[in-house]
């Protein structure tokens, strides 16, 4: 019996649809990621289940819409903050849990952002090994905002091993840790979830990437991601594991696109919005002898599909005691042409606990728009994404038939998954994890030799 495949899931932070060469960038140099696309399949209509970090990551790991797992009920905002009392419920089954139970060695190296209390850490959610930041890299102490955050913790397992780490070398440290993990587990199947800190602000990047970037610090961060991709691939090849490893490359949501150098082109919108630029992201899958090289898939698929698809690849099954919203996307991954059908009857664009838009086929209906700063307004916008990927021509008035068709889909989604504006609680909704008396992982000590000034500097 052939050995089950290793799995390397590379998840970038705030990387835009147009930030990679294989997705159209002419300013960022990404030969390693482009090579993945040439060796595998590039997905053009791939979505995260949210346009911001925490719910996006929780959905990807559990195969469920954020609302299904309570990831719309955070105390302060749409994402988790240091010392919050909530996180991914201990009873949730993640990709890590599923594969670990199936005999895989599992590691998460990089950003977690699904809760920083002990009950919520990666080690409680199926990962044998954890090394990284428990939340976003901007949630750090700064001179400019001394009371904003506690010192940023770098963790190994459930212990803080460093406070305010130098982010300019952190990706290199992540790669070193990943190489060690792969070497130690070369003789057994493993799942490595590599979660980048780039290109989330602040853009703190090694000088060697800044020297060669044609797109300032942002381009340097993208090219650092590319270097890491090349390094991980080279190690897999050195170990003789490359051709029996599924490599997935994606991003947790779209780019901020606010002057730093990111691009969601040709899509409209930004991170934290439900225009395509906020939630449609790059996705590449390489798996020799299974995923045809140099192919493209334009069928709608999502990160919620990773759990059931990887379960099938590992010869195990998704949990059967709960609703999983994702689908086994193996037929899309393995199709030799671009003629496989999407497994989704409809896809719902949530902002917290409200459905703001719905897509069915190539048609997309917006009912509510996030304008920034937490402000949302009602709208009536209908787009045919098959000929208007940039959402520029509103067909709401001219296609009442499509409006009604998508409204019916919206009503069904509201009934089954929930929508607070319409008083729909949803069905089979699971609770958010909560603890009493939460404590931050670190406490500021004025005598500690922190790196703080670097976090106050301009990008770069």
From TrEMBL:
<dbReference type="InterPro" id="IPR050738">
    <property type="entry name" value="Sulfatase"/>
</dbReference>
<keyword id="KW-0378">Hydrolase</keyword>
<dbReference type="Pfam" id="PF00884">
    <property type="entry name" value="Sulfatase"/>
</dbReference>
<feature type="region of interest" description="Disordered">
    <location>
        <begin position="416"/>
        <end position="440"/>
    </location>
</feature>
<dbReference type="InterPro" id="IPR024607">
    <property type="entry name" value="Sulfatase_CS"/>
</dbReference>
<feature type="domain" description="Sulfatase N-terminal">
    <location>
        <begin position="5"/>
        <end position="315"/>
    </location>
</feature>
<dbReference type="InterPro" id="IPR000917">
    <property type="entry name" value="Sulfatase_N"/>
</dbReference>
<dbReference type="InterPro" id="IPR017850">
    <property type="entry name" value="Alkaline_phosphatase_core_sf"/>
</dbReference>
<dbReference type="Pfam" id="PF14707">
    <property type="entry name" value="Sulfatase_C"/>
</dbReference>
<comment type="similarity">
    <text>Belongs to the sulfatase family.</text>
</comment>
<dbReference type="GO" id="GO:0004065">
    <property type="term" value="F:arylsulfatase activity"/>
</dbReference>
<keyword id="KW-0106">Calcium</keyword>
<keyword id="KW-0479">Metal-binding</keyword>
<protein>
    <submittedName>
        <fullName>Sulfatase</fullName>
    </submittedName>
</protein>
<dbReference type="GO" id="GO:0046872">
    <property type="term" value="F:metal ion binding"/>
</dbReference>
